[in-house]
Write a structure and sequence with these properties.
- This protein folds into 2 domains: 93 residues, no CATH class; 369 residues, Up-down Bundle (Cytochrome C Oxidase, Chain A).
- The protein is built from 18 helices and 2 strands.
């Protein structure tokens, strides 16, 4: 007797995801308008973004496996399976860590182009007084969109492409621990980028990248793009962090002990810890802000018992470990490349690992230096000033390990080596300026100035 199989043809590609996301968005807007507790469109827009993201993921193929397991259906993609071996695999859901790494790289390069165009528009607007290139009401929105795009790029540019591609190869693993979770960490990125870019059609978000209330409470629809886009970034950080940690801890090849791990893997390991612990704090803050805007809660409304400082603390409790999410994998890459082109072993392997963990640990105790000028209790200022200065010690240790490797080496000045030397120069300037800004009197004077902006950009450009 022949047993017939129940087969379901479901597309699994970005085009199907986009086609499903469009009605998903309008369905969310309709539901929000129907059941929203406020007269504005905040509820509808946020629900629209969320349902569009879920519909996009369904169209890409994330529902196929649950349908197979729950109902016993054999899900057959409409497209030719033979394309999985060709270039088509880069345009659909894949569980191959190398494919996901390349997908990450191409997507982030496109976002880098978008963020770079924003940077050029900012510079062009500042060329002459009273520039008409960017209307005054949109200038701060341009800065915010540029910053959010670039912040996300720098947080994912190493962990996403290089982490997914190289970590399994470096530790002798066949794959990542959770391939579907790995794919999810990437496929929430395109919706996040599109939603953030959509803020321009709503007039942008007038808060800059920090989203401070009360302005974020009163802002228009573009603020909803900030909330949902940033929340999806948090999802990507958490899922990627879980996957990287599980892979490094559980899937190392026999003989790949902790003391044999490449420095890049140590950089990814410490970064994953930071992302896993910090991103949920950001997500919680964004959920509270969304509730303030949709269901009339007052978490950040000072006139009704809330506190603007609560947002500042939650945001920067995520935000300062976030900047080390940028730099720790870069440190790992530097400590891989320099020994190769210096033609000698890394000077102080264990010392370098201690430096990475020292930076990761102290990064949790410095966020209040962003609040030196916004009402922090005076008795707390000395502690956070000291903790901010102390974080320069493990950073300096990593510098010494790198410089010790270069000492009396026969350096091969290739392009990768020149990039490493450029990193050391840029990050050194950023670090020295950071020591000045960690002191309360200097920070109060220079906060919000070009000196502070230069400090941030020198460290990020280095990383």
């Amino acid at each position: 007797m022949v047993v017939s199989e129940r087969r379901l043809a479901i597309p699994n590609n970005p085009i199907a995801g986009i086609l499903l996301a469009i009605p998903g968005y309008f369905a969310g807007v309709w539901l929000g308008t129907l059941f929203g507790l406020t007269d504005d469109q905040n509820t509808g827009v946020i629900l629209g973004y969320l349902l569009a993201t879920v519909a996009f993921l369904a169209g890409v193929g994330f529902l196929n496996y649950p349908l197979e397991r729950l109902f016993g259906w054999q899900v057959i993609p409409i497209t030719d399976p033979a394309e999985n071996r060709g270039i088509g695999r880069f345009f659909r859901l894949s569980l191959d860590h190398k494919v996901i790494g390349i997908q990450y790289m191409v997507t982030i390069l496109l976002m880098l182009l978008f963020g770079g165009i924003g940077a050029m528009l900012i510079r062009t607007s500042l060329l002459v007084p009273d520039s008409t290139i960017t209307p005054p009401g949109n200038y701060i929105s341009l800065i915010g969109l540029h910053a959010v795009m670039m912040i996300f790029i720098t947080s994912a540019v190493i962990v996403g492409p290089f982490g997914n591609y190289l970590v399994p190869l470096m530790i002798g693993a066949r794959r990542m621990a959770f391939p579907r979770l790995e794919a999810l960490s990437f496929w929430v990125v395109p919706p996040a980028a599109i939603i953030l870019a959509a803020a321009t059609f709503w007039g942008g978000f007038p808060t800059g990248w920090t989203g401070y209330p009360p302005l974020s409470e009163q802002a228009g629809q573009g603020m909803n793009s900030y909330i949902v886009g940033f929340a999806l970034i948090a999802v990507a950080l958490v899922t990627s962090g879980v996957n990287m940690l599980a892979t490094i801890i559980g899937l190392r090849a026999p003989g790949m002990t902790w003391t044999r791990l490449p420095m890049f893997v140590w950089g990814i390991f410490t970064t994953s810890i930071l992302g896993l612990l910090a991103a949920p704090v950001l997500a919680a803050a964004l959920i509270m802000l969304a509730m303030d805007r949709t269901v009339n809660t007052t978490f950040f409304v000072a006139s009704n018992g809330g506190s603007n400082y609560l947002w500042e603390n939650l945001f920067w409790f995520f935000g300062h470990p976030e900047v080390y999410i940028f730099i720790l994998p870069a440190f790992g890459i530097i400590m891989e490349i320099v020994p190769h082109f210096a033609r000698k072993p890394l000077w102080g392997y264990r010392t370098g690992v201690v430096g990475l963990f020292g930076v990761a640990l102290l990064s949790w105790f410095v966020w209040q230096h962003h609040l030196f000028v916004s009402g922090i209790a005076p008795v707390l200022r000395p502690f956070y000033m000291l903790s901010t200065e102390l974080i320069s010690i493990p950073t300096g240790i990593i510098f010494l390990v790198t410089l010790g490797t270069l000492w009396r080496a026969r350096v091969w000045f290739t392009v990768p080596m020149l990039f490493c030397l450029g990193f050391l120069f840029n990050f050194l300037i950023g670090g020295i300026s950071g020591v000045y800004l960690s002191d309360v009197p200097t920070d109060v004077t220079l906060h919000g100035s070009y000196f502070s902006m230069a400090h941030f950009h020198y460290t990020i450009m280095g990383g």
